[in-house]
Amino acid sequence: MGASKEKKTIDLLPNEIGSSSCDDVSFSMQFGESEQGKVICTKVRLRFIPIILKERDVPQRSKFFDDFYDVPLTAIAKMEVALVRGGSRGKPDKFHRIEYSISSMETASVIRLTLKDMRVVTIDLRRSQNGTHLANQILFFSKSGPIEKMTQVGAAMEDRGQKAKMPYNGYDAWHAELQRCQQKTDSSSKWNILALHKDGLNPPGQGYPLYVVVCNILSRQDLDRQMRHFKHGRFPIWVWSRANGNGSLFISADHEHNVATSEILAKVQDSIARCHPEGEKPHILKLDSGFVARIGKAFDNLLSLCAIDSYEQYVSRQRSWSTKVHRTGWLHAVQSCLEVTHETVRWLIDRDRSVILQEEDGKDLSIVVASLVQICCDPFYRTTTGLHQLIEKMWIALGHPFGERLLSTEQEKKQLTKMPSSKTGINPTWLLFLDCIAQLHRIYTFEFTFSPHVLIALWDLSLTGMVPSMTCNNLQEQLVAHVGGGPFPLDRYYEKSYLKMFGNVWHDSALFIESIKKNQPISPHSKFLRCESIRPPTEFCDIHLWSDCYLRWILPANGKNSGNLSDEQALDEKMIEMAKKWRSTEWKKHLELPEEYSSAYPYSIPEISRPIMELNDSDMRRPDDLDSISLDSTFNNSISFTQTPVRNNATTEPIFDQSTLERRNRKAAETIGSESPVIVMRPKEQIVGFSKYAFDETPSRRQHSKTIETPILDSFPAKYEHAYQPTPARRSNTVRSDRPIPPPRPAGLTPSRPEAILRVHIDHHDDTSPTTRVTRF
């Protein structure tokens, strides 16, 4: 059954009323065909109602928003409008970013929305009325107002979450956390669960919960002095301790500089040293004070690079892609967080010392690093339940300003001057944290019980404005607004078909095999795969762009029936076979994929065809004996040029029929092997075909070689003096002089599972044409 048949109509939320609408509009998302219909703007979303509903073979993810027809207004990062000027004779002008309402004398013809999740939405209003009013309504409701007036906040919970519990705002949660870390909680305990509101401490720490954990030897006078000395009253508090060690982790804001500074800092260090069994003083790590601004700038650059809405942009940005990603600065921010995390882990584990993470405000980088340290040092936080508690403790209870960082709820006062067109005002510290977990998950796949889809779901959910704790800036705002509740459980917001992808098939398969060996049922608390600690990467070569999140909407950037999903599906099928063989009922099917799926499933559909870009004759030459089949079309994960839709004035033409394609695909699979390699070619290379030797039906020609030869785009001569002779595959030792050799991988960063590696060799011979060899080692 196709996923499209399982979809159900998503109703509007209670009290969600439409404010503006336009008929006879053309609506499209990036790389999608334009659809005709009606657009409605409410206080929560922009909804498109098509005349003819297009079926897509992907499941419905959210219970409240459609990925293809709904746009949460709080997820809009940038809005651009093309106006019809008086002297343009009805033709729309170029796009201009708008921050203020458009005059009613202007005519908005096209609206382009860039979303924070890298999607691009285009609304053509040239055949519709009321376009200017629609643009003004979208702009008005995209700016988050008071929490009480946001209809979507808490809409998924009973009474908007008024009765929802705030675990770490009370005594019991901190008491249970101390016990889980194997710390004493009786009268002999070295820790004190302090009630800030009851002990008369004034003013209370800004963003701190009502209860915090401090050293037991600190008196009320000492705590009052520390609270007044540290910025915003965020003095050092306990967040975690090693169960098998002596070190503990603290976070705080930066301190003031006055005559009492040395005395107060000495008291802080002495109190923490007394809580250490060996009396070791804590190590203080001072974090970057300009972290938030740097993250905002890097995200703006990343959004400008990854928000692609046409094939022309994709082709132009594909050139020097790695350089452009490098220049965004986002990967450097990820590396910086992981470096500080690695240093903190060394102090806690290798030196068995306590650490204080000190940041200017104590709400951003210190929370990111402290959370990553607990994931690296505590196996409990690498489970779904542990991730839930970690977010509740570090991000919600300790007052990370989600509303200000993601939804710009406090940006109205700061936007008195017009913001530059390249700025969005978003500082997604939360996204950086999820990206760092994705980096750890990629390296230590078997150590996590959840899949990266959980991280993507959390990011998408935080942009909708539906989660009270991710819309407010701290617990105090939730109490004042009478709303509450975190993102978990995720089944409150997502459909079951999407929830099935949240399990880690690699982790579960290892536990299943171990249970078969021991003839025991699978234990979710098994310590078979639990590593005491993992070390985050520190070298830049080990930091990868999180393409599963940032490029999931770009069709040509994702393959067909390939990627991690194909590996997971093969593993899932193998485990099902083993379960039948051993008559076990422990294994449950993890993936239910359609026959044709994208490597970015379930976020986008597979790209069946793409426009053929026009090339100049001077760009390349091709021998006359070459056919017109592309390299990518020989593999199952590639894209065919057959039946290409016309878009953006691109010309199309069928190159070969389906029977020829299937025959050549089977021949290519036999030549290369049973697995489908992923080969990325530049656009100009994609329309260059194989030589006649690649699919020659006579096996006697090439018995010694199992490689595929295809011409490289180069200025090779039109005629050859000698006959073509394939060269046996060999490994090239040539190193480009203009590109530095990357440093070796640090110890302990070996990937969790071996992967096949494709080597591409370029051979130049005097008597033969330049060829590319694709060989699997």
UniProtKB/TrEMBL annotation:
Provide the coiled-coil residue spans.
none
Region (Disordered) residue ranges read: 723-753
An example of a Pfam family matching this protein is Myotub-related
Start and end residues of each Myotubularin phosphatase domain: 168-550
* SUPFAM superfamilies to which the protein is assigned, alphabetical: (Phosphotyrosine protein) phosphatases II
Q: Give the family, as the similarity comment puts it.
A: Belongs to the protein-tyrosine phosphatase family. Non-receptor class myotubularin subfamily.
Protein name per Swiss-Prot or TrEMBL: Myotubularin phosphatase domain-containing protein
Gene source species: Caenorhabditis briggsae
